[in-house]
Amino acid sequence: MSSINCFRTAKAPLHTFASVSRFRYSPNPIVSVLRRKSSPSFVTLRVVSSMAYEKELDAAKKAASLAARLCQKVQKALLQSDVQSKSDKSPVTVADYGSQAVVSLVLERELTSEPFSLVAEEDSADLRKDGSEDILQRITKLVNDTLATEDLTKAIDSTLTTDDLLRAIDCGTSEGGPNGRHWVLDPIDGTKGFLRGDQYAVALGLLEEGKVVLGVLACPNLPLTSIAGNKNSSSSDEIGCLFFATIGSGTYMQPLDSKSEPVKVHVSSVENPEEASFFESFEGAHSLHDLSSSIASKLGVKAPPVRIDSQAKYGALSRGDGAIYLRFPHKGYREKIWDHVAGAIVVTEAGGIVTDAGGKPLDFSKGKYLDLDTGIIVANEKLMPLLLKAVRDSIAEQEKASSSL
Ligand code: AMP
Ligand code: MG
């Protein structure tokens, strides 16, 4: 196969601005207005391509959809198998590595002119150890079978060898940072949900000069219709959603496995917290449910929490299934960028706000980790000030209680 062009940080293309978050984008005609921070009265008219990130978005959608197909196949076999117990981590490992390899190979194939940097969760170290030959063969076959469904093995010259697979996985070991472009991938976000047969996501985003400019979330088990007030969706619900967003262009959703037209989505417009519902991690080990419950009761939220795994929460929020997301990991946990990059832009382009518990925007420019003031919260513009106050009060109460112990 052709050599894989990863690990180098690509420069921003000419059709984008360094201060992308500040430009207003008018898709038709192809003109945008850029107001400079340093001289607010100075307005420049510049012609930009309405197709900014179009090629990258096509590649990202294809990569995430194909990786999701691989994950679906593994999850189906896992759930049908009488032999593999649900605590067996090996199917997850196969799917994690396989998904990462597929995304890496598809990006490489679709963005041939640009070397790329990929910050992803997995690396091949364990697969290179003695005794890993069987699992390596299994993953390679799975990836080859998945690429063959899109005729991509032909495009990649020939069937992948195990060495090709290891190289593709290791494309994801970039460190990220504030300069240039970095793709960011969680090949299976919500591993525990994946094992339970519940929600998980393939989450792929693109950072440019430390800012998120593109995000795609493939959520194979998320119903196409709202999950509001209906955590246990009926079996007749169609499932499988693909959310995508590019900076300044809004958020869209389409069925994961069909060519139907995407629809534009918006976050909930609820202004009264009593009418809001909130999302949190299914796993109590990932987020403090007690703290969320205290915040929700201060706000007057009446609905019980909606607990689901993975960045599927960000997808569901972007279309208004719920109005608030609360995430408060236990002390000492450091959030990774791949758990939030894609979800954050999917929500913000749909009109939502994503901040840390102190109200600061998330900073994805610091490498693999997010430096956070306790927790991550999401809401619409109207609810955010009330939410921030409730968060502040609840944290203060909690600290007071623990200092008096
Ligand atoms: P969620 O289902 O929203 O809790 O998110 C799943 C993600 O949480 C996983 O992909 C992990 O990267 C991340 N995670 C793993 N352990 C923890 C932890 N102790 N606290 C918070 N998040 C975690
Ligand atoms: Mg994750």
From TrEMBL:
Pfam families: Inositol_P. Mg(2+) binds at E121, D186, I188, D189, D339. Its cofactor is Mg(2+). Pathway: Signal transduction; phosphatidylinositol signaling pathway. SUPFAM superfamilies: Carbohydrate phosphatase. GO terms for molecular function: 3'(2'),5'-bisphosphate nucleotidase activity; inositol-1,4-bisphosphate 1-phosphatase activity; metal ion binding. This is (rape) hypothetical protein. It comes from Brassica napus.
